[in-house]
Automatic annotation (TrEMBL):
<keyword id="KW-0460">Magnesium</keyword>
<dbReference type="GO" id="GO:0030272">
    <property type="term" value="F:5-formyltetrahydrofolate cyclo-ligase activity"/>
</dbReference>
<dbReference type="Pfam" id="PF01812">
    <property type="entry name" value="5-FTHF_cyc-lig"/>
</dbReference>
<dbReference type="InterPro" id="IPR037171">
    <property type="entry name" value="NagB/RpiA_transferase-like"/>
</dbReference>
<feature type="binding site">
    <location>
        <position position="57"/>
    </location>
    <ligand>
        <name>substrate</name>
    </ligand>
</feature>
<dbReference type="GO" id="GO:0035999">
    <property type="term" value="P:tetrahydrofolate interconversion"/>
</dbReference>
<protein>
    <recommendedName>
        <fullName>5-formyltetrahydrofolate cyclo-ligase</fullName>
        <ecNumber>6.3.3.2</ecNumber>
    </recommendedName>
</protein>
<feature type="binding site">
    <location>
        <begin position="137"/>
        <end position="145"/>
    </location>
    <ligand>
        <name>ATP</name>
    </ligand>
</feature>
<dbReference type="GO" id="GO:0046872">
    <property type="term" value="F:metal ion binding"/>
</dbReference>
<feature type="binding site">
    <location>
        <position position="52"/>
    </location>
    <ligand>
        <name>substrate</name>
    </ligand>
</feature>
<comment type="similarity">
    <text>Belongs to the 5-formyltetrahydrofolate cyclo-ligase family.</text>
</comment>
<dbReference type="GO" id="GO:0005524">
    <property type="term" value="F:ATP binding"/>
</dbReference>
<keyword id="KW-0067">ATP-binding</keyword>
<feature type="binding site">
    <location>
        <begin position="6"/>
        <end position="10"/>
    </location>
    <ligand>
        <name>ATP</name>
    </ligand>
</feature>
<dbReference type="InterPro" id="IPR024185">
    <property type="entry name" value="FTHF_cligase-like_sf"/>
</dbReference>
<dbReference type="InterPro" id="IPR002698">
    <property type="entry name" value="FTHF_cligase"/>
</dbReference>
<keyword id="KW-0479">Metal-binding</keyword>
Length: 187
């Protein structure tokens, strides 16, 4: 029942996101970049766990490039054997199409190792298909972020779900395994 509800909500939110015009996308990219780069968690972090935008997702290119220029350790996801890990990246040009053709690191650089005592120096950015006013997030159905964060509460406390305002829905159905970001910023 919940799976079917999520499918319908995801389909509707993604259709709205896919229908955004190029000027709306550009405005969203500029606003989210400004909001993240100006966020205190960004300033306080030496490690950024970002994501490489794909398809109609809000563009994260400038955030990743700025973090690299600012001397931060930047890691992005790679899916291996059905599990998501974060690998260090030094340039967007080194990424190759991976899981579902999403740009990923090769997996030959340092893998991010979670250390609870270092979580307050780390910022995690999360994509999503839909978000609700209570901060619940729905991904794309794979549960990668839910599984990744399941045993990393101190990292979840430094996580921000980002997207376009049109991705906000009235209510995201929540399952016991769902892990919501600590903050959501929609532009």
């Amino acid at each position: 029942m919940i799976k079917e509800q999520k499918k319908q909500i995801r389909r509707k939110a993604l259709a709205c996101r896919n229908a955004l015009t190029e000027p709306e996308r550009e405005r969203g990219k500029l606003l989210i970049t400004e909001r993240i780069l100006g966020h205190q968690w960004y300033y306080l972090s030496d490690t950024i766990l970002g994501f490489v935008s794909y398809g109609s997702e809000i563009c994260t290119t400038e955030i990743l490039e700025s973090a690299l220029q600012d001397g931060k350790n930047v890691y992005v996801p790679k899916v291996e054997d059905g599990k998501m890990e974060f690998y260090r990246m030094f340039s967007l040009s080194e990424l190759k199409n991976g899981y579902k053709k999403i740009p990923e690191p090769a997996g030959d650089t340092d893998r991010y190792v979670f250390e609870p005592e270092h979580a307050d120096k780390t910022l995690l950015l999360m994509p999503g298909s839909a978000f609700d006013p209570l901060g619940n997030r729905m991904g794309y159905g794979g549960g990668f972020y839910d599984r990744y964060l399941a045993d990393k509460e101190s990292l979840r406390l430094r996580s921000i779900g980002i997207g376009f305002r049109c991705q906000q829905v009235e209510q995201v159905p929540v399952e016991v395994t769902d892990v919501k970001p600590y903050q959501v910023i929609l532009v």
